[in-house]
Specification:
The chain is about 20% helix and about 35% strand. The protein has about 60 residues and is an alpha+beta fold. It has one domain. Strands 2-1-3 form a three-stranded antiparallel beta sheet. Strand 1 and strand 2 form a beta hairpin. The longest helix has 12 residues. The radius of gyration is 14 Å and the shape is flat.
Length: about 60
Amino acid sequence: MIKTTNPLKRSAWAVFLYRGKQVCSYLLRNSNLGDKERMVELLARRYMTEPENIVVDIEFRD
């Protein structure tokens, strides 16, 4: 039997990558969708790099 999950019960996570490694992640909600850009800027300052070097990936988890 194939196991399926209800996509409505899955949560979206913003995963931030720098040099191929996960450096941060948080649960996305409607209220914090704009925080992605701010988090990219904060991580770029922390790792002393340009914001373009921080990759944001959206993952869906159960």
